Amino acid sequence: MSEAVVGLGSNQGRKSENLLAAVQALSRLPGTKVAGVSSIYASTPENPPPGAALEDFHNMAVKLETPMSPMALLGACLGIEAAMGRLRVNSQRNASRLIDLDLLLYEGVKNESFELSLPHPRMLYRAFVLFPLKELYPAGRAPGVFFEPYLKELDVDGVVKLDYKIQMG
């Protein structure tokens, strides 16, 4: 079993319910256990497309224990997105989305390829990723990455912890 962290986000429809559905789907992956769930954070959209009026995102992170390889887990995340109605279009970076699942970390793996980069290349520069990660790893150190110094340097305006938290059990 390996430890992995998936970042989740949604800014369409019933955002927190979308996140819950995605976490439930992750919990049903073969041999995979949800080992930790962060709070949900609201955040303003990052670099929205010109002229776009996007709703705030709801973001969170989930720690998994899984026998799946990083590529298999990535494929499962993409499958969950597709099953929930997300269509990935390369030209829509930072656009509105029903659900977004990003494989942030995978224990013992550093990888840079067209399909998958681990750790996620932009995670250290996003408060909406690091706040939930800090809940899962209070010491500021996750498998393969010491993120605490980055968290102290980030602009945290527009990132707010919500009262609602997904309970797994």
What does this structure look like?
By secondary structure, the chain is of the alpha+beta class. The chain has one domain: Alpha-Beta Plaits (2-Layer Sandwich). Helices cover 25% and strands 27% of the residues. The longest helix has 14 residues, at 70-83. The radius of gyration is 15 Å and the shape is globular. The model has no long low-confidence stretch (mean pLDDT 90).
Approximately how much helix is present in the residues?
25-40%
Q: What is the number of domains?
A: 1
The major β-sheet equals: 6 strands, antiparallel
Q: Low-confidence parts, pLDDT < 50 over ≥5 residues?
A: none
For the residues shown, what is the average pLDDT? 90
* CA(first)-CA(last) distance: 20 Å
Provide a count of the helices.
4
Q: Provide the β-strand percentage band.
A: 25-35%
**Strands, total number:** 10
What is the CATH homology-level superfamily? 7,8-Dihydro-6-hydroxymethylpterin-pyrophosphokinase HPPK
**Class by alpha and beta content:** alpha+beta
Order of helices and strands: EHEEEHEEEHEEHE
Cα gyration radius (Å): 15 Å
Features:
single chain; two-stranded antiparallel ribbon; 169 residues; 27% strand; Alpha-Beta Plaits; alpha+beta
Q: What is the structure about, briefly put?
A:
With about 170 residues, the chain is of the alpha+beta class. It is built from four helices and ten strands; from the N terminus they run E-H-E-E-E-H-E-E-E-H-E-E-H-E.
